[in-house]
Write the structure tokens for this entry.
Amino acid sequence: MDHRTIWIVYAAVFGLLIGSFLNVVISRLAVVDWRERGSLGGRSACPNCGHHITWYENIPLLSWLALRGRCRGCQQRISLQYPLVEAGTSLAWLAVALAADSVADLVTGVIFLTLLIPISVIDLKLRIIPDELNTAIIWLGFACSLGFGPRPRFLGHQWWWVEVLASALGASIFLLLPYLLTKRGGMGFGDVKLVLGLGAFLGAPVAVGLFAGFLAGLVPSIYLIATRGLAKGRKSAIPFGPFLAMGGAFGWFFGPQILDAYLRIGA
Ligand SMILES: [Zn+2]
């Protein structure tokens, strides 16, 4: 195997392990009342029967398949969330390893995509984005972009930091309008903060990410309104975080090229 192949296999395996850790993060953070939140340490146990999960029942993906998705203690079904998050994180790391063209790119990409996963899952489950995760994505985004420099520099060499700040602030201000309009359902303030983080990571290509996210979110919204009527469809709003996260991921992989092509047509 050549160097690059080894890197890519390594990323996929490491992604599986990180995915397993993300499941722990999700179960600890996805509790509405903070007093019930556990620490990240401690041994995992079955939520149904309290059966302690041994190391060989805790191997990412493989254990779930070997146990056929059931607890060894009580035969209760283990949520599909576990193998899906593990496989999804592994795929995300694999894709970043394939797309990255520098070490800085690789580091930024895996941090960004790894954060988007628990944000999406928790928003799907509870319709909230925990502040811990939004704070992490905002600060790590600025740290990566300002530390390594953003991938494309549309404003030239001296002004790239202005580009990062302006993109992040611009994107979150842009989201304030739909937030104020859909206040009782749909977008929450967590989404506004999330978009600040997306802009911090992506720089100017966050525009592509937002566009992709809105487009993806529009499909289920239109479907709900079409099947349940305008009034009901608007009330049964879907959580928007996962779509913004998908858009953000799309923006990371394809945003720079798309924005570049777009600006060239305009010039
Ligand atoms: Zn059990």
Observations:
- Residues 46, 48-49, 51, 71, 73-74, 76 surround zinc ion (CB under 6 Å).
- The chain has two domains: 1-99, 103-267.
- The longest helix spans residues 3-29.
